Amino acid sequence: MTNDDAATIAATAQTETEQSELEQSETENPALCHAIERNIRTVHHLRARAARSRNLEERAADGITEFSGRMVFVYLHAAWFVLWIVLNTGHLGLRPFDPYPYQLLTMVVSLEAIFLSTFVLISQNRLSEEADKRSELDLHIGLLTEHELTRVLKMLDEIQDKLGIPNDDDDELQELEKETRPEDVLEEIERANLRYVKRKRQRQPQNK
Hints:
Helices cover 79% and strands 0% of the residues. The longest helix is centred in the middle third of the chain and has 60 residues, at 103-162. It starts with a helix and ends with a helix. It has 3 domains: 1-53; 55-177; 181-208. With 208 residues, it is mostly helical. 0% of the residues are buried.
């Protein structure tokens, strides 16, 4: 067994242990059914596992992004700018090290903005990847739900025929019993968007 296999097994065992401890520590809410409580715990567990899987660079970027998004960050910078300007006015008996127009301060702030924007982009990229995973999960669940509902409608229709119950000629019900293909829906959405853009372009010369 290699070190990677051992690490994978240890991580899996730790995850299962944490999941069982989480389920045991949570108190049941009588207002919710067991399935909802289990889903809530599962979502929290997945978020905690995603947070633990971050590497050192991602943790640093998230920490800096979180701190820069607070009002404390604004207050510290305001105090820093005021102190810098006061010290370089020469009224305190100190020799100005960065007189007006404060070129050194401008360079420092520009470098800070570059690094800060990079940290924010790193955090946003990681959050975007997690959002893409959740969207893909929602898509799979939605497709599975649609398939199950279609099968249920067909089964109910067959049971109705077997019991000899008259079946109403409902066009909408027959359409619902058809299997929905995601690619067909996407193509129709694209065609609708193209028609909207085309009509919008045709109206622009008239408005002018």
